[in-house]
Amino acid sequence: xxxxxxxxxxxxxxxxxxxxxxxxxxxxxxxxxxxxxxxxxxxxxxxxxxxxxxxxxxxxxxxxxxxxxxxxxxxxxxxxxxxxxxxxxxxxxxxxxxxxxxxxxxxxxxxxxxxxxxxxxxxxxxxxxxxxxxxxxxxxxxxxxxxxxxxxxxxxxxxxxxxxxxxxxxxxxxxxxxxxxxxxxxxxxxxxxxxxxxxxxxxxxxxxxxxxxxxxxxxxxxxxxxxxxxxxxxxxxxxxxxxxxxxxxxxxxxxxxxxxxxxxxxxxxxxxxxxxxxxxxxxxxxxxxxxxxxxxxxxxxxxxxxxxxxxxxxxxxxxxxxxxxxxxxxxxxxxxxxxxxxxxxxxxxxxxxxxxxxxxxxxxxxxxxxxxxxxxxxxxxxxxxxxxxxxxxxxxxxxxxxxxxxxxxxxxxxxxxxxxxxxxxxxxxxxxxxxxxxxxxxxxxxxxxxx
Length: 451
Hints:
Helices cover about 45% and strands about 15% of the residues. By secondary structure, the chain is an alpha/beta fold. The model is unreliable at about 130-140 and about 395-400 (pLDDT under 50).
């Protein structure tokens, strides 16, 4: 669906010029003053208002206030022929999304519109993500049965309400981005933007431009002003994934932002102040990188205010059955497959496999199995060869229990198996299960396990 744009300017020739540049991509309407603009917004919905700040009768700032009262979510670009920083700041304080200096550069305007609505789409995606996290991370269905992961989530509960910088450590595939999402979703900044960037995916020059933005003409190909991730995250959180891959030059600039909450766009001279929370993640040992002179020591201590260490999947094998059950249900529904169970020998192989790719590898394994399964059960035949060969060796489980019941059913079964394996020694069983002896006793009473 094409965006609806209202152009407001008391100069007919300027309105006509903007209309000509915008009409091929957008549905464009016109108004000649602030009064007409307010009435137009009352009559129908607009995605964007591009409005001159100096008009007879009702000026742009007065119209902006009334338009925002009528339609709080509308995007407003203010145009000014006066390069006044104070005027622009006043417009931004009144919730204008951007300001444009007249005469308007049509190419720059089109670029700003595309960036603004790409940013809006990103905000909507983050809202949906938050809703998914709110559903997933509840006391009743959280996918973390092991003591190690419960401890991580307890830490998140303490960390999230603060503004402290967080460094999430862990192997690839352990869920560092998911934890970053959760920290933001549980923070006072939850309704503000959550912006992410993978530092390993971009060259030094591109990463600098993505982080700090750039001004028009600052380098070859910079055809317009670009807002960086720091500006887009203002008021919210910025997640820097694989921060250990940053070049020394970018590390220096990041350190300055952390110290001063200020930066300049590439090619710019005006300091930009932002209010953001920094969350970072890496699979590297940053302290070893510091000792090897590949990572700045002062930056390391700035980032490592609150560390969160995620365990590997092989360190929390109790989580494999409920995670497998979750992925089985998710991908069966997504692919319209009626696959309800994971057979015992397949589960046994997954429990004994070390999962170097961690949760991501487990997820990919289940998705692959769901797609190629030839029956309603996931068997060893659907597992990758390196996991299937484990099933062909001596099995660790000889029960006929399958995944497909409730989490409580699986918890009861694994408690029972563990107790049998240690000949009823509750202290030993509690240690293996990662819970206290008292918790084990309570679970045994709950599940009527008298061993």
